[in-house]
Amino acid sequence: MTAHSLLTTLLPLVADLSRELPEGERYRRLLQAMRTLLPCDAAALLRLDGEWLVPLAVDGLSPDTLGRRFKISEHPRFEVLLSSPGPTRFDSDSELPDPYDGLVDGLHGHLEVHDCMGCPLFVDDRPWGLLTLDALDTERFERVELDALQAFASLAAATVNVAERIEHLALRAEDEHQRAEIYRQASGQQHKEMIGQSKTHKRLVEEIKLVGGSDLTVLITGETGVGKELVAQAIHAASSRSEKPLISLNCAALPETLVESELFGHVRGAFTGALNERRGKFELANGGTLFLDEVGELSLTVQAKLLRVLQSGQLQRLGSDKEHQVDVRLIAATNRDLAEEVRNGRYRADFYHRLSVYPLQVPALRERGRDVLLLAGFFLEQNRSRMGLGSLRLTSDAQAALLAYGWPGNVRELEHLIGRSALKALGNHRERPKILSLSAKDLDLPSESAPLIEEQAELPVVTGDLRQATEHYQRQVIGACLERHQHNWASAARELGLDRANLGRMAKRLGLK
């Protein structure tokens, strides 16, 4: 590595420091330059977040790596790199497991990383994260290249510093981070973050930031399993109430009488079993946020009582005439079409309008493109840690299967699928493998239209864009099912294994409604 080649590689990055670039593009250029300077099979930039390392950019690693969250205590190579003041190169015969084993992109076999080096990044003299380089060939890196990596790390730290300062100026990121950190510590949800890079997901995140800074009542809508509770947590974390509690209640989990008691509290003797006075969720959330999940399941009676609290901020505990004043921001969520429920007389119009001051639609997983791979990576790393594996990865056909599937159960279905498939795949090995790969066969994705298998041969073959082909097929399946049931949507939804409201939204998106 000559001084001239080093300078040639670094000059474009120096020029980038004065340019306004998206954070992801800035980091992508950084890794590409590093691979030019120090040829390797894979490179990654990881940010330190407490006891975790979060990948911000990868080059040469599988896409799901961006969704993984590496717990430092479970990855000794990361511990070594973070404890060193400068670059570290591991011996090719090192017995320390490599976090990237099985994750190098484009490889179908179980080839493991054989040469690895990395360097900690410091911003304002504080550890910020890591740069890592990996190669499949033994002795790919030379000792002299450690100096080049150290020089590059200094520029990388400057790049990171610039990116963070830009983000701070644009979004007041530091203040948001502090509030979110307080929230995470209070709620115990240390790593329940929103993962995704699709335009649809980014639009949702921007909307969350927008409404989070207000005190408006938010109605979160979306299909089952899209993560509505996670969105509610993010709204609270972005609000001025983030230091106060976020109290949740699933309205579908309790009978009507207990829902009232849970919401408003009760006094001793208010009903059989009320042995002591008790504060309700509203009083517990005073000064903070109350999240009502499955709000579409509330009875008309409870809706009327809730409306009064929302209008006046005053409530009475069950069995008491005493008024209690509360200051609560309400966030509600439902997978029902509440406007249709109002039209059918099953929901109060005044309560619905009070809830939907700011309606927020959470996109279905099938609308988020390659985000499914990032989310899969997150769940793969969770299961790898839980099962004590060295590596848990997806084969290329498994990745293709995840991208092609329609996900009627959304993110929750993906989470359960990864956990179930990993457990089954491990059970098929007599000895615990170092690297466990999940294939499309292991995933065994269900058919969304099982009752119509014999009719599939009659459907026209569609070529070209995969998403267009999938939507065309869905139109055919749903249309044929509706014809058989004389356009009875409830009956068609049962046959297709979908919630009626979800089927309605899907049909509207496909232009069938």
TrEMBL record:
<dbReference type="InterPro" id="IPR025944">
    <property type="entry name" value="Sigma_54_int_dom_CS"/>
</dbReference>
<dbReference type="InterPro" id="IPR009057">
    <property type="entry name" value="Homeodomain-like_sf"/>
</dbReference>
<dbReference type="InterPro" id="IPR025943">
    <property type="entry name" value="Sigma_54_int_dom_ATP-bd_2"/>
</dbReference>
<dbReference type="Pfam" id="PF01590">
    <property type="entry name" value="GAF"/>
</dbReference>
<keyword id="KW-0238">DNA-binding</keyword>
<dbReference type="InterPro" id="IPR029016">
    <property type="entry name" value="GAF-like_dom_sf"/>
</dbReference>
<keyword id="KW-0804">Transcription</keyword>
<dbReference type="InterPro" id="IPR003593">
    <property type="entry name" value="AAA+_ATPase"/>
</dbReference>
<keyword id="KW-0805">Transcription regulation</keyword>
<dbReference type="Pfam" id="PF25601">
    <property type="entry name" value="AAA_lid_14"/>
</dbReference>
<dbReference type="InterPro" id="IPR002197">
    <property type="entry name" value="HTH_Fis"/>
</dbReference>
<dbReference type="InterPro" id="IPR003018">
    <property type="entry name" value="GAF"/>
</dbReference>
<dbReference type="InterPro" id="IPR058031">
    <property type="entry name" value="AAA_lid_NorR"/>
</dbReference>
<dbReference type="InterPro" id="IPR025662">
    <property type="entry name" value="Sigma_54_int_dom_ATP-bd_1"/>
</dbReference>
<keyword id="KW-0067">ATP-binding</keyword>
<keyword id="KW-0547">Nucleotide-binding</keyword>
<protein>
    <submittedName>
        <fullName>Anaerobic nitric oxide reductase transcription regulator</fullName>
    </submittedName>
</protein>
<dbReference type="GO" id="GO:0043565">
    <property type="term" value="F:sequence-specific DNA binding"/>
</dbReference>
<dbReference type="InterPro" id="IPR027417">
    <property type="entry name" value="P-loop_NTPase"/>
</dbReference>
<dbReference type="InterPro" id="IPR002078">
    <property type="entry name" value="Sigma_54_int"/>
</dbReference>
<dbReference type="Pfam" id="PF02954">
    <property type="entry name" value="HTH_8"/>
</dbReference>
<dbReference type="GO" id="GO:0005524">
    <property type="term" value="F:ATP binding"/>
</dbReference>
<feature type="domain" description="Sigma-54 factor interaction">
    <location>
        <begin position="194"/>
        <end position="423"/>
    </location>
</feature>
<dbReference type="GO" id="GO:0006355">
    <property type="term" value="P:regulation of DNA-templated transcription"/>
</dbReference>
<dbReference type="Pfam" id="PF00158">
    <property type="entry name" value="Sigma54_activat"/>
</dbReference>
